[in-house]
C-alpha cells in the first residue's frame, strides 16, 4: 500500500495543479476527478519500474478510466494493508505487446501492440 499511496499522492498533486477537481471514489478506485477523459490534458505519465531497471511508461489512456459520465478515475487500485502483491491489470497493458519469460523470471514490453 505504501507504493500506491505515494503514487496516488503525486498523481493527485499534478491533476489538481492542472485544475482538475477531485471526485468521490467509486468502488475500489479511490482516486477520481470531475471531467471526461477526452478533455483531460496534462495527465502525468506513470512509470512502472521493475527490478533490474526495466521501465514501463504509462500514458493517460493506460492510467485513467472514465467510470461514468463526467467522473474519471485512476485505473490503479491499492492493496489493503501491507500486502506485497500488486497486479498490473489489462488496462495498463493496453497498446503494449507483453512477453513473459517465466523460466528466467523476466518480462518485456514493446509499445504499439493492439492499437
From TrEMBL:
Transmembrane segments: none
MF GO annotations: aspartic-type endopeptidase activity
Domain Peptidase A1, chain residue ranges per copy: 1-110
Coiled-coil segments: none
InterPro entries in UniProt: Aspartic_peptidase_A1 (IPR001461), PEPTIDASE_A1 (IPR033121), Peptidase_aspartic_dom_sf (IPR021109), TAXi_C (IPR032799)
GO BP terms: proteolysis
Pfam families associated with the record: TAXi_C
Keywords recorded for this protein, A-Z: Hydrolase, Protease
Gene3D superfamilies: Acid Proteases
Keyword Hydrolase: yes
SUPFAM superfamilies assigned to the protein according to its UniProt record, in alphabetical order: Acid proteases
PANTHER family, A to Z: ASPARTYL PROTEASES, PEPTIDASE A1 DOMAIN-CONTAINING PROTEIN
Family to which the UniProt record says this protein belongs: Belongs to the peptidase A1 family.
Protein's name in the database: Aspartyl protease family protein
Organism annotation: Senna tora
Amino acid at each position: 500500500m505504501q507504493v500506491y499511496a505515494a503514487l496516488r499522492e503525486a498523481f493527485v498533486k499534478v491533476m489538481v495543479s492542472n485544475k482538475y477537481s477531485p471526485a468521490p471514489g467509486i468502488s475500489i478506485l479511490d482516486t477520481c476527478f470531475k471531467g471526461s477523459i477526452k478533455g483531460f490534458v496534462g495527465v502525468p505519465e506513470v512509470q512502472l519500474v521493475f527490478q533490474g531497471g526495466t521501465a514501463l511508461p504509462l500514458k493517460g489512456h493506460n492510467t485513467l478510466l472514465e467510470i461514468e459520465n463526467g467522473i474519471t478515475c485512476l485505473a490503479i487500485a491499492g492493496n489493503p494493508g501491507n500486502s506485497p502483491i500488486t497486479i498490473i491489470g489489462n488496462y495498463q497493458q493496453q497498446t503494449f505487446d507483453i512477453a513473459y519469460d517465466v523460466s528466467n523470471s523476466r518480462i518485456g514490453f514493446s509499445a504499439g501492440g493492439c492499437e
